[in-house]
Design brief:
heterodimer; A: alpha+beta; eight-stranded antiparallel sheet; two-stranded antiparallel sheet; about 45% helix; globular; B: mainly alpha
């Protein structure tokens, strides 16, 4: 397995993305804890290290190829980079003792060690790939379960530090791009219905993060009392319905307000190709409109995949990594504008 | 992880979360009991919408509400014998200290989990080779077709005959199963665990 470098974190952006017009990514994760240690937030340094060692040994014994990344040894910008790539959580970005990211060779798979739980086994894939993402997770979990003694209760299921994750320990999330539902003021009504289905909406970087550029992460809230396939299917049904609504809204906008929608898309293009200073928030908003143009065949300078990558590449840590220099805010806005101009100019 | 937000007016722990949509984008606002109850029209609206699940997380509201009640009632004074975490501390952070906390606080956790998940019986995967995997499967029929029923052991005719002999020699395994089912139904897990062990030893004999 080739050594991990930061760019590796964005490999998932290269794969084909089913339903790419509406869906950016699928993420699944299992929370698991070793039965003989306190949960990570309460564990002391030797225990945290012992947990990490046991997990690493289990990976070795299971013949699972991995690359370990010790989070506390990373620079702040490198940690931020991994968060922007959606590979680690905002919680993990705050480096703590014995926090490790194990990056595996199977597409999308990685393990976060000593975040809130001892292990968060996760799979991140492009587009809508719920079943594949759960299947990879199941395989890895089974392999690890042969080597490790997971904390389990006959009634409560897999035990987790926070009881909101107990049971299956499963969270399934789909990042959706819903610009037409936002433009037609329908998104509110739809997202309000989610709790009825045991689902919730989260921001661009997961729990407690903000909403950016018409991107909404839909995930299950209930993890106990339903089997893993049931959680997945219930979420999938709702995601497909929202996807249909978005596509209908796009069609309606296109049929009834074509000039208006074209105007929004080309204005976004204008801003992105002419700005000399642009914030990441503004860039995401404009890229969101441009993405709508791709989906509707109005703008063909980039495909969905290239646009997804651009959305990640304009994030602060990605920009600074590319420039190989820490940059002040205004310098970043300037570098971001230059990057957008060059990427979009090359395409026309 | 659930993060405890503060009331945007006074900084006390928030009891209500309201999601306001500005230009179609949701923004969360947080209020304590007092300020949520104050009669500003916005909060009034929020209160109404709470009932219609505008609040993204209905279950958390329940927890916060029960925290409000418990402030008067006081939390049960128990500590986890393994890690020492008090139930009160759990309620403050919503984080347990170690896997044993679930047993130490079991009767309270049942209420907690019902609030979060609406259900308290795990229906999913079990650790490989987990002894309790099938013995403590819920007695109620599965709510979803997606949940696999526990397969009855498929046995060769010869083994089946042996089984009959064992069962003849040990009448009551079915009765034990029945008792187990009842124990699970009335949530008597200590009894259920004992019955499970008895059944297991019967089955061991049978397959030996």
């Amino acid at each position: 397995m080739p050594p991990f470098n930061l760019e590796t974190a964005d490999e998932w952006l290269n794969e084909d993305a089913p339903h790419a017009d509406v869906i950016i990514s699928t993420r699944t994760r299992y929370a698991r804890n070793l039965s003989q240690y306190p949960f990570s937030p309460r564990a002391k340094s030797p225990q945290l290290n012992a947990v990490a060692n046991e997990i690493e040994r289990a990976l070795q014994q299971g013949n699972i190829r991995f690359f370990p990344i010790l989070i506390s040894e990373l620079e702040e910008l490198e940690r931020q980079y991994l968060k922007e790539s959606h590979l680690i959580s905002a919680e993990m970005e705050r480096a703590g003792e014995a926090r490790v990211l194990y990056y595996l060779s199977t597409p999308g798979l990685s393990i976060l060690v000593n975040e809130e739980d001892h292990m968060r086994i996760q799979c991140l894939r492009a587009g809508l790939r719920l079943r594949e993402a759960l299947q990879s997770l199941d395989q890895l979990e089974s392999q690890l379960s042969r080597q490790l003694n997971f904390a389990f209760h006959e009634r409560f299921g897999y035990l987790t530090a926070c009881p909101t994750n107990v049971g299956t320990g499963l969270r399934v999330s789909v990042m959706m791009h819903l610009p037409a539902l936002v433009l037609t003021n329908n998104v509110e009504e739809i997202l309000q219905l989610l709790p009825q289905y045991g689902l919730t909406v989260r921001g661009f970087y997961g729990e407690n993060s903000e909403f950016l550029g018409d991107f909404f992460q839909i995930s299950n809230e209930v993890s106990l009392g339903k089997s893993e396939p049931q959680i997945l299917e219930e979420l999938e049904r709702v995601v497909i319905q929202i996807m249909d609504r978005e596509q209908h809204a796009r069609q309606a906008l296109f049929d009834e307000k074509r000039v208006k929608i074209e105007d929004a898309i080309w204005r976004a293009y204008g801003t992105l190709t002419n700005s000399r200073l642009i914030s990441s928030r503004d860039a995401l908003r404009q890229l969101s409109h441009l993405r709508l143009g791709i989906g509707q065949g109005i703008f063909d300078g980039l495909n969905d995949q290239q646009l997804n990558r651009l959305m990640i590449d304009v994030q602060p840590a990605h920009l600074q990594h590319k420039e190989k220099n820490p940059l002040e805010e205004e310098e970043r806005d300037c570098a971001r504008a230059a990057l957008l101009r060059s990427r979009l100019a090359n395409q026309n | 992880m659930a993060v405890f937000k503060k009331c945007e007016k006074c900084g006390k722990p928030a009891v209500y979360k309201s999601t306001k949509f500005i230009n179609g984008k949701p923004f969360d606002r947080f209020f304590c009991e007092d300020h949520a109850a104050e009669s500003s029209s916005y909060v009034q609206k929020t209160q109404e919408s709470i009932n219609q699940a505008l609040k993204i997380n209905e279950t958390l509201k329940n927890v916060f509400e029960s925290m409000g009640e418990s402030a008067a009632i006081a939390f049960p004074k128990i500590n986890c014998p393994t890690c020492g975490l008090s139930f009160e501390e759990y309620k403050r952070t919503l984080l347990l200290g170690c896997p044993d906390c679930y047993r130490a606080f079991e009767e309270f956790m049942i209420t907690e989990l019902r609030k979060f998940h609406g259900d308290v019986q795990h229906m999913g995967r079990h650790p490989e080779g987990s002894p309790s995997a099938s013995a403590l499967e819920p007695a109620k029929p599965s709510a979803s077709a997606a949940v696999k029923p526990i397969p009855e052991p498929q046995e060769e005719p010869e083994e089946a005959m042996e089984k009959e002999e064992v069962e003849d020699a040990a009448p009551g395994i079915e009765e034990l199963r029945e008792q187990l089912k009842e124990a699970v139904e009335r949530e008597d897990f200590a009894r259920a665990a004992a019955l499970r062990d008895q059944i297991r030893s019967f089955e061991k004999k049978r397959s030996a």
